[in-house]
Amino acid sequence: MFQSPFSASLFVFRQTAFRYVDLRILPALLILTYPFSAFSEEPAKPSAPFTVNPTLFTKQGDTFPALKSPDGVQHFTVFEGVQTQAGYNHGAVLAGFKGQLFCQWQTSGKDEDGPGTHVIYSFSEDGEHWTKVRVLAPARKDAIVTSGGWWTQGDTLIAFINVWPDDTPQKQGHTEYATSSDGMNWSAFKPVTGAGGRTVQGIIEQDLKALPSGRILTAFHMQPGLHATPYYTEDPSATSGWTAGNFTNLSHKDTISRELEPSSFVDADNNIVMTFRDQAGSFRVLASVSKDNGDTWSLPAVTGMPDSRAKQSAGNLPDGTAYLVNNPSGTKDRLPLVVTLSRDGKHFDHALLARDESTLPPMKFAGKYKRTGYSYPKSIVWRDALWISYAVNKEDIAVTRIPVSSLRVQDSLETNSD
């Protein structure tokens, strides 16, 4: 190994001088002779898995002039809140099953996570006209129940719910599932289990994705508290065999991890990119990447994607284009609702306005943690369109339909890269 004259001299000095040095000054001498880099270097910050064209989200007042509405965009109401009975509604999630579009969400009389919070759902043949709501998971005496998402396996629709017991010292819970062959009659709920057959001690994120390999990916917010962790399973029903990926949360002082409420997409190299809400308040999306099918993950990094510190939804269009649906306000404002696109999942350089303040109705009811805007979007591709579900002011449930043909990234924008 090559050794510089300086380092060689330093070695001789250490070997000879220490024989005669006064032991009282030894600590200071060790500091002087120790490589300076050991004290001056800071851990390198992780690089983000993707970049974002910052001009997309340049504000003029409260508007984003660069954002235009896509051709053919439509908005439909799934459910209107009912004062004192179902005045609070949130966490809407979609699934396509046997030619119908299903939507589940959590509801309570007035407040977020209020007593009696439970899960209801509706379905539609066209996304515009919705059935009268049905109860998916009734209220429980000793817990509140919130929406956990869907999965389909052939002729079976699987519904997930999150159960939050009242008697825990901190906010935490577990996940259960029920199955149906017709979307109307359901089995009893059972716990979701891990690879060892034990109940997964965590809350499932409403965003299960099939990877190119066939593996199913999501995340659980694990106990104690809520610590977001990528999980995968080979079980085609997504109800058992869940295994944690090797993932390190960023440092955060709370019992809740800095990373929350993730979603994911696959980039052009078949890397999996998981996006997160940043609970630390950067008002930017966090992201981590896995290059080995979800087994291991990079340290989450702050990206250039503005956010409202809320739930977001990511995925891939049929041609592989990556997308992210969120509120890129850079504040706590949950509007506008925007779809940002990337041809390769590495540089997001195109964005479209799904819905803005011009179509936002006034809030009708008071309630704990109520907030105006389009909250907690989740999305799927169904019948040649991107369908986005969300809560309006946390009291109505709505969907937005955007034709996939209106989401194509133009060639002129594909060349825009760092």
Keywords:
single chain, 418 residues, mainly beta, 4-stranded antiparallel beta sheet, disordered N terminus, disordered C terminus
Distance between the termini: 38 Å
Radius of gyration: 25 Å
Overall 3D shape: globular
Q: In terms of structural class, how would the helical and strand content be classed?
A: mainly beta
- Largest sheet features: 5 strands, antiparallel
Total strands: 27
Average pLDDT number:
90
* Strand residue percentage: 35-45%
Helix tally? 4
Account of the 3D structure:
The strands form seven sheets. Strands 11, 12, 13, 14 and 15 form a five-stranded antiparallel β-sheet that branches. Strands 2-27-26-25 form a four-stranded antiparallel β-sheet, with no helix packed on it. The protein has a four-stranded antiparallel β-sheet with strand order 3-4-5-6, with no helix packed on it. The protein has helices spanning 5-17, 26-33, 37-40, 411-414; strands at 51-52, 74-79, 88-97, 100-108, 118-124, 134-137, 143-153, 156-165, 174-180, 190-191, 202-204, 209-210, 216-222, 227-233, 243-244, 259-266, 272-278, 284-290, 301-306, 313-316, 322-326, 337-342, 347-348, 350-355, 374-382, 385-392, 396-403. It has 418 residues and is mainly β. Residues 1-42 and 412-418 have low confidence and may be disordered. β7 (143-153) and β8 (156-165) form a beta hairpin. The chain contains four helices and 27 strands.
